[in-house]
Amino acid sequence: MDKISKYQATLLVILMSLFNAPLFSQEVASACGHHDYPPWNWSKNKKIVGVCAEVTEKLFANIGVKVDLTYIGPWKRCQKNIEASLIDINICSFMTPKRQNYSEYIATPMGYNENAIFVKKGREFQFTQWSDLNGKVGVMMRGVSIGKDFDNFLEQNIQVQRVNNNKQVFGLLELERADFTPYGLYAGIAFLQSLNMRQQFTILDKPVVQGKLYISMSKHSKYLHLLPEIEALMQEPTYSEWVAQLIKKYTDIYANDISTSQKLLPPPHCSISY
Q: CA–CA separation, 45 vs 41, rounded Å?
């Protein structure tokens, strides 16, 4: 190396150290997800973790993008930040017309979330069609969608109490202040097992709907062009088996994380939406 080249190399090192910047920086996409929906995702140690989080993180890592899963707040805030183009990726959600206005969805579902009707044991009722819910009181978390058709049915026919978290949902059922909750099958089982309360609730036989969970991205994200590459990775033959393994993995992790001595507490206030 001649003297000029040595001088240039030394100068470059000095400049890089002064500005504290690496020669090569990895792309980082911001992401958010539901704060309280195990095993798919939940907040833990100021991050979003779970099936959706690991799937999104590893898929994007395969194409050289790091996903920032720092917890930004509840589910409704996640949606608002995606809509405002403040966050790049929604790690998994149902596809709704409203969300399609500001999000681009990957065509292949990230996973399938069967939604079931949970009731307090001893308060079961016949459920073969949606109209069997007429006259009953439901309870759901704020911002949760079960899909366009069922959402519309609830809005037009059922009194639904909206609360902030899982404990409040099942707390109202336990206190008989609500008759049922339409809830993700895996998520509901994981939550109840974590509190050692699975035997206190019944899952009615007929599913409400099999919901498709999708990875989506803000239409204004600079990473939007990468969605076809993620789509291709999800077409791999082993993808579905991998997701099934993750569902079991995170169901067990969530159950182990939560103390079985925790008790369900009802919310001090509940807003009712119709």
A: 13
| Residue length of the chain | 274
Q: Mark residue 136 as left, alpha or beta (left: phi above 0; alpha: psi -120 to 50; beta: remaining).
A: beta
To the question of pTM greater than 0.85 for the whole model, the response is no
In angstroms, what CA-CA distances link 154 with 17, 93, 129, 137, 139? 59, 19, 13, 10, 11
Q: Which domains does the chain have, with CATH numbers?
A: 27-111+214-257 (3.40.190.10), 112-210+262-273 (3.40.190.10)
- Helix (H) or strand (E) holding 222, with range, is none
Per residue in 40-95, pLDDT tens?
Answer: 999 999 999 999 999 999 999 999 999 999 999 999 999 999 999 999 999 999 89
Please give the DSSP secondary-structure letter assigned to residue 135.
Answer: T
Q: CA 169 to CA 180: how far, in whole Å? A: 9
